[in-house]
Amino acid sequence: MKILIPREDELVERRVAITPDVVQKLKLLSFEVFFESGAGGEAGFFDGEYIQAGARNESEMDNFDILLSVDLNSHKKHFKKDLIAIGIMDPFNNSKLIDSLNSRSITSFALDFIPRTTRAQYMDVLSSQASLAGYRSVIEASHFSNSAFPLMMTTAGTIPAAKVLVVGAGVAGLQAIATAKRLGAVVSAFDVRTSVKEQVESLGAKFIEVESDEKTDGVYAKEMSEQYKLAQEAKLKSVISSQDIVITTAQIPGRPAPKIITQDMLKLMKHNAIIIDLASKSGGNCELTEHGNIVDFEGIRIISFENILNSIAYDASRMYAKNIAAFLELLHNRMQENNDILSIDDEIIKSTLITYEGRTVNTRLLEAL
Length: 369
Ligand code: NAD
What we know:
Elements: E1 2-5, H1 20-28, E2 32-35, H2 47-52, E3 56-57, E4 66-71, E5 84-88, H3 95-103, E6 107-110, H4 125-144, E7 152-154, E8 157-159, E9 163-167, H5 171-182, E10 186-190, H6 197-202, E11 206-207, H7 226-240, E12 245-248, H8 263-268, E13 274-277, E14 294-297, E15 300-303, H9 313-337, H10 347-352, E16 353-356, E17 359-360, H11 363-368
Parallel strand pairs: 1-2, 1-4, 2-3, 4-5, 5-6, 9-10, 9-12, 10-11, 12-13, 13-15
Antiparallel strand pairs: 6-16, 7-8, 14-15, 16-17
This protein binds nicotinamide-adenine-dinucleotide.
């Protein structure tokens, strides 16, 4: 079968789905690999590297069977009957994409629907990318901040360590905590899932506890009660005034991000504080967040990025490529046993399969609709 590595829409996406080091792995699985000119250029991988790894330019290709993408939404020009298309789809918010996949009978897989299980962790693009986003959020904060991170004792006086608050201690939040600690900040963190307290503390940060009987302890957070939100607001108000940097990462899968940092809280903050909102695409954790913009509120900058992974596209692509190749290997092996994809009895395949033979078949998506 023939694979196409497309060039992403460079206005929004600098990553590439397959990096040259992974081409060899795909060839060992007997795939022929083709790439669009410049596919990896924005991420720092050049056409010559793909050719050296055994891929060929798409000009040498008459047809292809599999499209391996980062953002599937920007590859409609490649959509054709009976294609297998794999990438990030944001299926809950992308009915037009799903319609266009169905209209061409495309078999599509959403990598953002990979289950969060131990078996699937090699394919888990949400985790690999969130981890890099968490790291990069701290680097961006240090870039925008006009203060130093570590405690410095100099002959001219002492610079206190920066205070960093991380809201949401999932994959991105934990990496943000670890990065801020490495830079020498005093870090505290908050999450509705009290089970993460131990992980936060093991990274050397302080876990902020909200006094409430309501507890969430699953893998994912849920929408909390009004009573809990009031207790959380009171607690955050008591700590936010001393923070130099706040990094917010709180998300609830399939729902808008919870609004946690209110305008009232902003009024309590230091005038040169920075907020980096990693949840901006799903609405943001701060009331004033504007996705992709920097908002100035009385000197406090609320910063969000259109796509923070563009600033670390080389490593993000390397991780993504390993994830997508691991998924393709699984699919390839299962298809050798059973060519009817819909009836393959595999949790990972079932969870990610979105459209098949002209209809939407994903149970999680159909339930949400
Ligand atoms: P996420 O991006 O959905 O959310 C980020 C964090 O925000 C979560 O920790 C969530 O509890 C928190 N949050 C939600 N609402 C909040 C609120 N109102 N206030 C404060 N915090 C709030 O989550 P994620 O990073 O994708 O990961 C979720 C969990 O899944 C993590 O515990 C992670 O370890 C686990 N996970 C497990 C596997 C695996 O088993 N292989 C793989 C990946 C992730």
